[in-house]
Amino acid sequence: MFRGLLNLAAVRGGVHPHSHKDRSSALQILKAPVPKRLYLPLLQHAGEAAVPIVERGAYVFKGQLLALAPSDLSAPVHASSSGHIVDICEVAAAHPSGLTAPAIVLETDGEDKWAPADEGAALTDAYSEDAMTLANRVANAGIVGMGGAIFPAAVKLKQGAKHEIKTLLVNGSECEPYLSCDDRLMREQAEAIVEGARLIRHILKAFRVVIAIEDNKREAIAAMQAAAEPYGMVEVEVVPTRYPMGSAKQLIQQITGREVPAGARSTSVGVLVHNVGTVYAIYQALTRARPLISRVVTVAGACIKRPRNIEARIGTPVQDLIDLCGGFIDKAEVLLLGGPMMGIAMQSTEVPIIKGATGVLALAKHELRREQSSACIRCARCVSACPMGLLPLDIAAQIKQDNFEAAADYGLNDCILCASCSYVCPSQLPLVQYFRYAKDQQAQKHRAAKKMNLTVSMSLAKQQRLADEKQQKAEEKAAKRAAKKKTRTRSKQALHENGIKEAKADSTQIGEAKVITEKTAAEKEITNEATTREELAHES
Amino acid sequence: MLISMPSLLSLATSVMCIAALGALLGLLLALAGKYFGVDDESPLVKEIVSLLPGSQCGQCGYLGCADAAKSLVDGEVGINFCPPGGRALVDELASLMGVDARELGELAKPQLAQIDEKLCVGCTRCLKACPTDAIVGASGQIHVVLVEACSGCKLCLSRCPEDCISLKEEKLSLENWAWPKPQLLSHAAALE
Amino acid sequence: MNPSLVHCGPYAHDGSSVSGIMMQLCLALLPCTLFAFYIFSWPAIFLFVVCCGSALIFEAVCLYMRGDSIKKIADGSALVCAWLLALTLPPWAPWWIGITASFFAIVIGKQLYGGLGQNIFNPAMLARTALLITFPVQMTSWYAPMPFADAASPGFFQALALTFSSVSPEQLNIDAYSGATVLGELKTSLGMGLSVDQALQSVDNSFENSVAMGFDLSRALMGFSSGSMGETSELMVLIGGIFLLWRGIISWEIPVAMLAGVALFSEIAHLIDAQSFAGAKLHLSSGGLLLAAFFIATDPVTSPSSRSGKLVFGSGCALLIFIIRNWGAFPEAVAFSVLIMNAFNPLIERYFKPRVYGRLPNKQALPSMSSFELAQKLQRQK
Description:
heterotrimer, B: mainly alpha, 3-methyladenine DNA Glycosylase II, Chain A, domain 3, Alpha-Beta Plaits, two-stranded antiparallel sheet, 38% helix, 7% strand, elongated, C: mainly alpha, 3 domains, 16 helices, 0% strand, globular
């Protein structure tokens, strides 16, 4: 009964920022030349960092596997071009902290050679393969959510295979200002995207495919409609231009009229959302056996001479892309990775392009939000802008007092960090930073509590083990004495000693087992966290 | 006659009522004291002990976690007495004891043991001393601290004959980096 | 790029600012203010200047004493507050009424609570109510409009004397007609046992020779009647209100709930007993109702932030206005009603929140598809 009523609710809130897309979307995607050096971070995805399997000095071919995914939630890393591995070291990370992260440094030889085996590898018809094989192929290709969510695509496919998926939603809304990489990709690779979507539909056994595009991308809509024409179950749906339309939750609401239940994934309403970039990468992986080694990046902003979209190899330093666009015409106030609403500031131009990099924006001061803020006047613009129906002003007020529990009670955990609230705030309050701060504090507290549980259980295990050993020793002594009294043969003593060794081994095993169970529990939790993070993250 | 009979009567009634009420409340108070009263503070101490890391590390200056819990109840130490417990423990103790954890301000960052690989001789003494089995290694081999299990209790420090174990703050990485609280830059202040 | 400074998004902004909002509010107040200047001539202008000027001085002193930057005065909140306050004062009130009122509004109503955004009560209404109770005579001395065009209207120096030396118009030989407002007259007449019609008749009589002849809707809209400075012309207030709605400075919920509420309650009462209750037309077009509905009750600081909360707040104001106007001791009820609803605001905020995406109104997560289907399946099996 409730559902019927609630389905009437359309997408709430949202804002209409100036799109700034015209300049970059006018030019064709430029294929970037092979850079001298590629920096391939081991952590470009939501889960744990990949484990390198190549040595320093080794020669690698283009597309060769360089680092393995330690778990399902992680993604492998492939060589974006051929050349020698120079180093595995810390390089500037695409992260607001400006910290470094481990990466494989590849000095290219300029030949850009595929591995000989890959060259002529004939692929069987993907439609004749079963879902799991295809999903594994996607996993091995290292594909992650390319709208910025960086959640491994294969995990979503496997999840989807378990649930009944009615709709595959291909997210081409691209609601972030400045970004036009999805727009350009849809214009230039419409057939490939439709084919990719059909392949995913085959994996998921979904009813229909909906390609959602915001109404400000006329050419992309036309191209996709033409490409989808021959297939009945592939529809192109035009959605209104409104930020954050590209957020999975809002797009699902727009297309299906359903809300994803709090704490649940989109699969629970029978929908799976993939970004067009991801769909294209999946197409490449399934039909041409190409791993994810390049992506389209929008380089834009008032400080860039010729804003445009570039197909760049993963690991290309940002500076190279800026140079390709004619360099800076002005000193950039902020250098962003991603869009201006949800993107992050980079501290240097040495940061390499990662799989989730949608854009590189060099913004001038006049394009930015002022950093000075005044008192909140409770104007409630944030309330009407919030697509999640939250009260950002009250949440921020609680966080200001470090009342994290109260903030959670006000719905902090439902916040998708879309930044609509901060965008409209006349007091220019850093609302999003409050939310990020509180979320990180909660996460840290959670982590600390988990660690303490682990140490407590481990110290208990050790105490138990020591007590057991003591008892064993006592028993052994008693047994020795008894044995001495009775037989006094050496052989029996030896037998006892063996027994003690075994017992010792047993007790250590118990300790280890406990650690292992703890660890798996922790991992499971990480899995859950990661999946929710994926839901929260943008697909735009 | 100064006081009339009826008013005297009403005076007597009211006095009696109040007296009866007093007696009843006194009785209730006595009963409450008997049945709900707390003889000793051991339940609270027990509860606190159950929250503590239990590694008996002695970083707080007491012999073990139970001693420390008792002195916390006695008010000798603050709720931030236990470095290995960290922020999570402080918050739990705060809610248990009814104090505001925010007043304590920034807590010391958790410390972790670190073994200098150049100096370690592989004597296994620290292994035995570690209450949480956070140091792994074998005789004659370099020992390594498992970061996720180390509570920073310092028990291994004194055992090392080579003095090669030190306590360091956890290295800042992408995993443990957190957004700082916004420092409000008021418009007027920025103008000045 | 400053490496020591961690930037956080969003990096885009719609360009709005607190001072921008305040400026647009001033702009919206301009029509009714200018009209008030016109019909009440110089004394009104002097009172307005005194009120706003002293408010700015009080604000600056408070900011200084609180250790804040005096430059914050540029946000315009004090100006808007004093402006609104001036519009609710009797136009020919003496200078000290203006200063006391702005002291109440800025110092007690706003800064003592912690400054901008921290006050519980609308500062302007707080000041007006405080003055109404402490200086009832000065606060209810109404004079019929005397536009500049009117030969009898006080000249510049006469007006100076009127505002700054507390002499009555009669002493200055100004042919001013003192008289109650429509609501005041209604209250007095009803109190004397007259019917609504008779009361309105007496309103007519009291203004026999003035420009505002009796109660007439079109005249009320135009505003040639006695009353507070800004509340006489419903039309001018409406122009400002529509401007605010168009600019998105205020949302429709509070004005609509408030006006519709008053109209509904008074019309129902009027239908039941036409002789004791005036109809919606009179209530809507008299007193400060319209000014309050668009400019005062919508004060963001002291009104709820959610849509449902705003509707509740607006209808609460309407109910209180209806009750106080009909049964209260004072003829005008807007200030009291807004203040009372301000007091209820935290409670309304607490209980009227928007429904969160993916959750039921009781905050529980929506049933997921799978469990929903499971239920369906179970039903089918039965």
